[in-house]
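Dear colleagues,

As part of the handover before I leave the project, I'm documenting each prediction I ran so the next person doesn't have to rerun anything. This entry is a single chain, and its sequence is reproduced below.
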Amino acid sequence: MKKTSKYLFSVLVISLINFTLYSQTYRIKGLRLGVDISRFSLYYFDPARVAYEFSADYEVKRDLYLTCEYGKQTVNLGKDIYKYHSDGNYIRIGVDRNFIKSEKPDEYEMAFIGIRYGYAKLNHLAGNIVTPEQYWGKTSGYFIPASNYTAHWAEITAGIRAELFNNFFIGWSLRARLLLAHTKDQNMDPYNIPGYGSGSKKAVIGFNFSVYYRIPFYKKEVNYNPVKK
């Protein structure tokens, strides 16, 4: 009886040690959807532009996320010597690498660096253009008809994301963009390329501040060792 008791006690102690050193929990896998709320500040800083952007990412590995961003933009610019209008949309696709090494598998905070490929398409035109004339003074009524414009660019992004509470996140990112190719427009450059920035610059800096909700598809069992080595 004594031997049996000692044996059961030993098994219990070993089981408790193993449970402490090697535990099992879950990691939520799902599609995280976001909206860029920094776009609303355009009303104050650049009221000629109206834009919105949505994003989605999915965790492929613990530290690797596939991501896609889509947006639309309209510009209505009225000046004394011309009026300008454009309407277009864009898409960016890429990956984010998370550099936070969390000990717990159910933590989702991110400090990341990512790369993107961006593509935009827009239609723009200008009217009521006032031109100076040597003999007749200023004349108006000149019109640049609507034309299509496309642009391709690459960007590097870095930022953070934090989980406020279950499945709800908030985060920001800073982006450096390099224009790779674009339509050769003999009449005019676009005022602003959707998803990229100024139509007259080969490189620009962008910023996003977004809120996210993750749609939990399923839970994946993850084994981990919570003891620091």
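DSSP finds two helices and ten strands in the chain. Strands lie at 23-36, 49-61, 64-78, 83-98, 110-133, 137-165, 168-182, 192-193, 197-198, 203-224.

All the best with the project,
I.
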